[in-house]
Structures are given as structure tokens and as C-alpha cells.
Amino acid sequence: VVIRDLTMINAVDWSWWLSVAAGGYNDGLVYWPAATEGGEDEVYVLKRYYTFGQLTRFISAGDTRLFTKSSDPAGWAGVDAVAVRKPSGEVVVVVVNDGAAKSLTVSGLEAFAGAQVAVTTTTASKNWAESTLTFGGELPLEKDSVTTFVFG
User: Fold this and answer.
1) Do 58 and 25 fall into the same domain?
2) Residue 140, pLDDT score
3) What is the residue range of 90's domain?
4) Range ranked top by mean pLDDT from 5-9, 21-25, 97-101
5) Do residue 89 and residue 104 come from a single domain?
6) What SS3 class is residue 111?
7) Which of 23, 69, 90, 91 fits a disulfide with 86 by CB distance 3.0 to 4.6 angstroms?
8) Is residue 88 in a domain?
9) What is the mean pLDDT of residues 44-53?
10) Domain assignment of residue 4, yes or no
11) Are 34 and 82 contained in the same domain?
12) For residue 128, pLDDT beyond 70
């Protein structure tokens, strides 16, 4: 939803309206059963927290949104992406993949061929897993993932 709002309706700001979900609701970023009478004291960090963090940790006020286009539009089924240029010159690409693992080619990144790219991935079993790759022209996406690529 966030990426589509940024790229389709050119939203310049986005906020999550509910940070802590209480009781039987799980629409927040964390879930706290103790907020209801008789609930347990544990606080549960929901996967939504990590997926939302893929955007908030890497995209900031002052960044310039860039147009993103795949060289293979059919390959973008179930994929949403947003790219920004930071004031430092770094380019950040955040991709949500709602399907099978795939690799995508995004036009405009050719100048980074051979560069080391910082990668942060959230999947069903990973939360903000960090790695690096040598950029060869494609962005590898794990199944059902949110992946952030930082080109510097």
C-alpha cells in the first residue's frame, strides 16, 4: 500500500495510524495483549513492523523519488518498487515481491554495474537480514519478500 501511494498518487508523506495493537486486534506494528484486561505482558513485534521498516529505515525527508520501470513488465506481476536518490547521491530501491523468487532488471541502474550493493531483506523467516551483492544488472528477490538495495 505504501509504495503504491508513493508511486501512483505521488504521496509525499505516509504514516501508520496505529503503532500498538491491543486486545484481539493485530493491525498495529506491535501487538500487546496486556492492553486488555487479563492479557499477557509480552509485546509481540509483528512482521508488519519489519516490512514497514524497510521503507522508514532507508527513505527519508529530502530524498528525491525516481521513476522505476522494469525491462520486463510481465515479470513485475506481484511486484511493487520505489526508488529514491538521497542527498548524498546514494540510490535506494525498495521492492515488495508478493510471489515466487525472481530477478528483475530495472532501467536506470546501469551505471552501478559491478558496484557493491547493500541489501536488506525481510521474508517470513528473516527480519532485516543484511547482505551485499556485486550488482550485475539484476535485482534478486526472494519469495514473498521486501528487499531494499542501497547503491552508493
Assistant:
1) no
2) 96
3) 53-151
4) 97-101
5) yes
6) helix
7) 90
8) yes
9) 86
10) no
11) no
12) yes
**What's the distance, Cα to Cα, between the start and end of the chain in Å?**
27
| Domain count within the chain | 2
Q: DSSP letters of 47-75?
A: HHHHHHHHHHTT--TT-EEE---BS-GGG
Instruction: State the alpha helices, DSSP H only, in the chain.
Output: 2-8, 47-56
* Residue 87 and residue 112 in one domain: yes
Task: Confirm whether 3 is domain-assigned.
Answer: no
Whole-number CA gyration radius for the chain: 17
Is there a single domain that holds both residue 147 and residue 100? yes
φ, ψ for residue 54, nearest 5 deg: -60, -30
Say which amino acid occupies 107: S
| Burial (Cβ within 10 Å: 0-12, 13-18, ≥19) of residue 73 | exposed
C-beta atoms surrounding 72 within 10 Å: 11
Distances in whole angstroms, Cα of residue 85 to Cα of each of 28, 59, 124, 132: 29, 9, 28, 19
Q: Is 70 exceeded by the pLDDT of residue 12? A: no
In this prediction, residue 45 carries a pLDDT of: 82
